[in-house]
Write a structure and sequence with these properties.
80 residues; mainly alpha; 4 helices; 51% helix; extended
Length: 80
């Protein structure tokens, strides 16, 4: 059965997973196209610089990533 998508979703060509991921990341923008090679490395370096610009930005990133609680406690990700 075909599902009806919103007009804005059709126009952007984004899948629901990409839309959900971009909303979960908050203020982090999702590139409109896939990058590869040097463009990807440059984009990653720019993002790394943005995240490491301040302790608050780094902490917020780790909280959103799920490896740190908002109070600064690191989470145990493995059993053992």
């Amino acid at each position: 059965m075909a599902t009806r998508t919103g007009k804005s979703e059709k126009n952007t060509g984004k899948s629901r997973a990409k839309i959900k991921a971009s909303k979960a990341l908050g203020d982090v923008s999702v590139a409109p196209r896939e990058l590869s090679g040097q463009a990807l490395l440059d984009d990653m370096a720019a993002y790394r610089k943005k995240i490491s610009a301040s302790p608050e930005a780094a902490r917020d990133f780790l909280v959103r990533l799920g490896v740190m609680d908002p109070d600064g406690t690191l989470k145990t990700l493995t059993d053992g």
